[in-house]
Amino acid sequence: MWSLAKEYWRVLTRPSVHFSLGFLTFGGFLAGVIFWGGFNTALEVSNTEAFCTGCHEMSDNVYQELKPTIHYTNRSGVRATCPDCHVPHDWTNKIARKMQATKEVWGKVFGIIDTREKFVAKRRELAEHEWARLEANNSLECRNCHNFSYMDLTRQSPRASEAHEEFLTGGKKTCIDCHKGIAHELPDMTGVPGWQ
Amino acid sequence: MKTYAFIIVLAVAATAAWAAEPIATLRGPASLIEQATAPSMAKVSNTDLRRMRNYPEQPPTIPHLIRDYQIDRNANKCLSCHSRRATVDSRAPMVSITHFMNRDGQFLASVSPRRYFCTQCHVTQQVTKPLVGNSFVDIDSALSNE
Q: Is the pLDDT of residue A121 over 70?
């Protein structure tokens, strides 16, 4: 094992005998472009709604619940897809989330939520993960679209503008504190602050 | 054969006579064979202003949007503002104390299951004209008119 590593190190540290410097430079550059492009393309494919709803766990449960809500159907036709809310948009956090998502592959393989009953039984736990994530990052995925700096409180209903002025302006609460269940059905809310 | 023809003629004549009469229906005045234009869908009133009750027992109407509000055994979105504890922050009217009462008149610690489903009695109002006229006057107006 150790001798094999030494052999590889010897090959790597010696100048190339058969390939020109130009070939190695430009070939390496091209291979890098292809690898990086391929990686990002694969990442983008895994970040589409078609990919998420490719599994029946997602398409039969949470996707169906999203459909009647305002984040799917509304007057202006602007809508949020799964990754808009559930995957961070900047690169480092996105990769971190993608690594976490390997747990979801595990869940898919072993059928953790492969029936409606199993999904409903597990919904509170899954929802709590998402609430915790959004509380920790100050509802970043909401704010990717709903930027408070551009939010005109005077154009909101009196009820909404009063609540936003009191709780959101001073940072007393974050979006998810009041807007739980905005896009999916809620689990049993016993013991969740602010719910009966 | 003759009998059938007679029945058909009679049926057509009866339909024509019936259609000619101006009967007020939700379908409107369009005859059976034509497709009436549906009225445009009314918007839900969202003024946040409390409306006067027409009689003391009337369940107050909801003056705001309640789209996608979940009310089931898992969660009650209405109570996240209108419950006793939530009204401090929300400043929404608290659910009336009658809602804590069971059918034997006993007051419970929280909203009684039989009063839990808010939209059974409390409804939003739409910005539209009433379909039919209404000459209802409340008791105060009735008394002062005497």
A: yes
Residue with token string 């918007």: B43
In which element (H, E) is residue A105 found? helix A102-109
Characterize A116-135 residue by residue with b for buried, 16 or more Cβ atoms within 10 angstroms of its Cβ, and e for exposed: eeebeeebbebbeeeeebbe
Interface confidence, given as ipTM, is: 0.80
Q: How far is A124 from chain B (nearest CA, A)?
A: 10
Contact B60, B51 (CB under 8 A): yes
Residues linked to residue B124 through DSSP beta bridges, in sequence order: B62
Quick one: B49 and B79 in the same domain? yes
B48/A157 touch (CB, cutoff 8 Å), yes or no: yes
CB B79 within 8 A of CB B95: yes
Cα Rg of chain A, angstroms: 24
Nearest to A194 by CA among B122, B40, B80: B80
Output the domain CATH number for residue B105. 1.10.1130.10
Looking at the fold, whether B95 and B128 belong to one and the same domain comes out as: yes
Residues of chain B with pLDDT under 50: none
Q: Is A186 on the interface with B (CB under 8 A)?
A: yes
For B49, name the nearest residue in chain A, comparing CA atoms only: A158
Arithmetic mean of pLDDT over chain A: 93
DSSP, residue by residue, A150-193 = G--GGGS-HHHHHHIIIIITTTSS-HHHH-TTSSS-----TT-T
Say yes or no: B59 and B121 in one domain.
Answer: yes
